[in-house]
Amino acid sequence: MSDAPPDVSKEMTTTVTDLVDLRSRLTAWLSAKTGSSAEIGELTRPAASGMSSITILFDATWTDGDERVHADLVARMPPAADAFPVFPSYDLRRQYDVIAAVAEASDTPLPKLYWIEESADALGGPFIVMGRVEGEIPTDNPPYVFGGWLLDASEDEQNKLMETSLQTLAQIHAITDVRDRFPSLAADTGPDALRSLVDGQREYYEWTRREDGLRIPVIDDTFAWLEAHWPADQGETVLSWGDSRPGNMIYRDFTPVAVLDWEMAGLGPREVDVAWMIFLHRFFQDLAEVFELPGIPFFRRADVTRIYEAASGHTIRDLDWYIVYAGLRYAIVMSQVKRRMIHFGEDTEPETLDEYVMFHAMLRGVIEGTYDWTDK
Fold this sequence. Notes:
There is one protein chain. The protein has helices at residues 19-34, 92-105, 149-152, 155-173, 178-181, 183-186, 193-208, 217-228, 271-290, 301-312, 319-343, 360-368; strands spanning 39-40, 54-64, 67-77, 113-117, 127-131, 238-240, 249-252, 255-259, 266-268. It is an alpha+beta fold. The relative contact order is 0.13. 41% of the residues lie in helices and 13% in strands. It has 12 helices and 9 strands. β7 (249-252) and β8 form a beta hairpin. α8 (217-228) runs antiparallel to α11 and α8 (217-228) packs parallel to α12. The model has no long low-confidence stretch (mean pLDDT 92). The strands form 3 sheets. The chain has a 5-stranded antiparallel β-sheet with strand order 1-2-3-5-4, with helices on both faces. The protein has 2 domains: 19-131, Phosphorylase Kinase, domain 1, CATH 3.30.200; 149-368, Alpha-Beta Complex (Aminoglycoside 3'-phosphotransferase, Chain: A, domain 2).
């Protein structure tokens, strides 16, 4: 197993929650919710818990009718108001409704939904309770290309994970009547779904710079590139998972058993999700190669296209454009993560504005046509 270089794996501040107090309040809430004497075991936070939400793991027992029920559960909560959020909002009701609608419309593997609590009375903020799914998740920090079960797997096992992940993505995209099934997403989507998505990214970018006013040249140039190369035909509008990547799936035997993290879901072309998978893995792979490590050479453009087209019956189009769009989305996120790390004293202000985007050289190479996409 390879160890991640220290420059890659960084400690980043996440919201600190008093788990003892939270357990007491959660027990009281569950007792009232079920009308029974509920019991909750020790609460824990997963080591890989991200910055966009608080994730709490616990087991619970309650009475349903004449039966005593036991379940391993997960609670997801928005970040605290003082946590320097990465995103402008965290709409739990929307996430809950999207997951419920996906479960109703398809066989996509998902955690079981138990409850949503929209009041802040119980825990100080809204939260969702879902069933816990056992399995393995590729890590983001440090990236899975530096070490762990996926790097240690055989090439056949790695390719199986790629293939089953893309088949699962095609399954999500096969859901029909998406404007009717996902009204909250449809409300944000005009007649041109792609235009709505890009306009949403502009709004997000302006939100990130609302206090410091910084204009990051590589982000501005990427917006300009996208406008100059707009796809002539964006094809069918489907449910876009929004954060399609191995790190948001739970696997058993290299096959997805749960699709997680729907906060970036929307309606748009299939290629939005396909390109996001390609771009984010390539970013990780480039990091590995900087440190002269082999990484995991999969999720290549040609392989992803072949597998997805076979699974979906859809011909991928304008992939270059959608990869640039993926780079734009990730650049805005990473610029806000950079600000956040500076805010908490974990990083210093960079010498150039482009350095607010960790992979600025890669993104500029992509829009200028100098980045080497040679499959490795």
